[in-house]
Amino acid sequence: MKLQTGISKRKLRGMVGQTVEVLLEGVSGESDLLLQGRTEAQAPEIDGHVLINDCGDLQPRAGEFFPVEITESMEYDLIGRIV
Amino acid sequence: MKGSMMAKKLTKVGFVSLGCPKNLVDSEVMLGTLAQHGYEITHSKQDADVLVVNTCGFIDSAKQESIDTILEMAELKSSGSCQKLVVAGCLAERYRSDIIKQIPEIDFVFGPDELGKILEAVRIGDEPLPDISIDSLYTSREIPTIPRILSTPGYMAYLKISEGCDHVCSFCAIPGFRGKFRSRPVRDLVAESRRLADQGVRELVLVSQDTMAYGKDLGMEDGITSLLRQLAELTACIGCGSSTATRTQLPRISSVWSPKKRSSVNISTFRISMPAAPFSIECCEAEAVKLMSGRSSASANSTRMPGFAHHLLSGFRVKPKKTSRKSSPSSGTFNSITWASFSIRTKKEPALISWTGKSNAAPPAGGGRN
C-alpha cells in the first residue's frame, strides 16, 4: 500500500498542467466548498477524484462533462479548475 | 377505476444491496422486475411488507456485514411491518443451508443465477405467480427485455458484461458461487447500453469478474476489443442522431474493471477513440503466479488485443530469496507480495494517461480462500 501510494502520487503529479475531461459528480464529499468529478481513468468508488476549486462563472450540473485543468495533485486525488 | 386501484394494496418491498457493483446490477434487475409486476419499492425498512437482502459472500468482513444486515432485518419481523424476509446473492448461494438453519426468520433464499425467483420470494398470500425465469446473464425465456431500476446517480450506470470466472486463484472463492465464466451476448449489451443512454446515462462503467476474458466463451477472438468498438459506435450514433449533441454529451465508456480489487491492481480504463488504453494485468512473475495458483493473463491479453504492446509500469515482487542478487534494492524490504500494474499501449506515441489504480491490498495471509 505504501509503495503504491508513492507510485500513485508520482503519476498524478505528472498530470499537473494537463487539461482532462471530467464527469462532474456534484459537491465534494471532502468539503462543501469543492466540486468533485472523475476522469475516464477514475472508476467510481474505487479510484480517486478530481476536486474542482474554481468553476469561473459557470453553474455546472452533476452528470455533465467539463474540461478541467489540473493544478495540483495529491496521493490519490487531483485538483483542478474548469477551463 | 379509482375504487379498484384503492382496493388493491400494493405490497411494499424494501431492498438492501450489499457488496460489489455486479451484485448491485443484479439488485437493479430484481427491483425492475418487482416494479414491473406491481410491487412498490420502499426506502423505509419499517414500512416494508417484505425485506430483501442481496448479500455478498466474498471476504470475511463482507460476510459479517451480510449476516448483520440479515439479523437487523429479521428484527423488523417483530418490531416493524415486515412479514417476509428474503435473502439473495452470493452468501445465499454459498451458505444456503447454513443460513436457513441458523436464522429461522428467513423465509426464502435464492442465488444469483435464479433472479426470476424474486417474484416468488416476495409473494405474500397465494396470488398467481408469474412464470418468469431470469438468470445471472439477464436472459429470460419469457420476457425479451429485462427491466432495470438504476440505483446509481442518473448520469452513470454499471454494465455487467459477463458472469463467473474460470481462474482458480487460491485466494478467491468467487468461482465457487458465481460459477464458470460466461459472457452476455454483444447484442444484449448494445441494446441495454442504448436503453441506458436513452434514459440519460452519460457514462457506462463495465463490470464483470474477468473483464478481459469477455467473449472467449462465445468464440470471439477479440471479445473485449470488439465489444468496446461496438459500444463506441453506439455512442457515436447517439451523438450523430441528436442535433444538439456535442462531444461531451456522448456517453463515455469508462473504467473497465474487474472485481478482484482487493487482491490485485485490476482497475483499468479503455477509451476506444483514443490511440492508447491502460489496462491492468493481475500478475506476471512466475513465482507469484505459482503462489496464487493462478495463471498469468499477460499473454492471453496480448493475443486478445491485437496491435497492442505491453508497457511495464511497475513490477510484481515477492520477498527475494537470500541467494538472489538481482532484485532491486527496495524489494528486499517486502514481506508480502505487492502487486503489479501494467498499461497496454499502442505502438504509436501514447496519448492517454497511464493510470495506476490505488487498490493494491495483498491477499490474505496463508493463501487461504476467503
What structural class do helix, strand and pairing data of chain A support?
Answer: mainly beta
Helix content of chain A: 10-25%
Quick one: which chains have the greatest interface? A-B, 32 and 39 residues
Q: What is the number of helical segments of chain B per DSSP (H or I, 4+ residues)?
A: 11
As laid out across the biggest beta sheet of chain B, the strand order is: 2-1-3-4-5
Shape of chain B: globular
How far apart the termini of chain A lie comes to: 34 Å
Low-pLDDT residue spans of chain B = 1-7, 239-250, 255-283, 294-370
Tell me the quaternary state.
Answer: heterodimer
> From N to C, what is the helix and strand string of chain A?
HEEEEE
Our measurement of the CA-to-CA distance between the termini of chain B, rounded to an integer number of angstroms, reads: 54 Å
The mean pLDDT of chain A is 90
Beta-strand content estimate of chain A: 35-45%
Biggest sheet strand order of chain A reads: 1-2-3-5-4
How many strands appear in the DSSP assignment of chain A?
5
Poorly predicted regions of chain A are none
**Given the helix and strand composition of chain B, which structural class is it?**
alpha/beta
Largest sheet of chain A: 5 strands, mixed, barrel
Describe this structure in words.
The complex is a heterodimer of chains A (83) and B (370). The radius of gyration of chain A is 12 Å and the shape is globular. The model of chain A has no long low-confidence stretch (mean pLDDT 90). In chain A, β1 and β2 form a beta hairpin. Chain A has one helix spanning 2-13, and strands at 19-27, 35-38, 50-54, 65-73, 78-82. In chain A, strands 1-2-3-5-4 form a five-stranded mixed beta barrel. Chain A is mainly β. Chain B has helices spanning 2-7, 21-36, 60-79, 90-94, 96-102, 118-122, 174-178, 186-198, 223-241, 286-292, 298-304, and strands at 12-17, 40-42, 50-55, 84-89, 108-109, 156-160, 162-163, 182-183, 203-207, 252-257, 308-314, 341-346. Chain B has a five-stranded parallel β-sheet with strand order 2-1-3-4-5, with helices on both faces. In chain B, strands 6-9-10 form a three-stranded parallel β-sheet. Chain B is α/β, with parallel strands linked by helices and 370 residues long. The model of chain B is unreliable at 1-7, 239-250, 255-283 and 294-370 (pLDDT under 50). Helices cover 30% and strands 15% of the residues of chain B. The longest helix of chain B is centred in the first third of the chain and has 20 residues, at 60-79. Chain B has eleven helices and twelve strands. Chain A binds chain B through residues 1, 3-5, 7-8, 11, 15, 18, 20-21, 23, 25-26, 38-48, 62-66, 75-76, and chain B through 21, 152-156, 200, 202-203, 205, 248-249, 252, 254-255, 257, 261, 265, 267, 269, 271, 278, 313-314, 330, 334, 338-339, 341, 352-361.
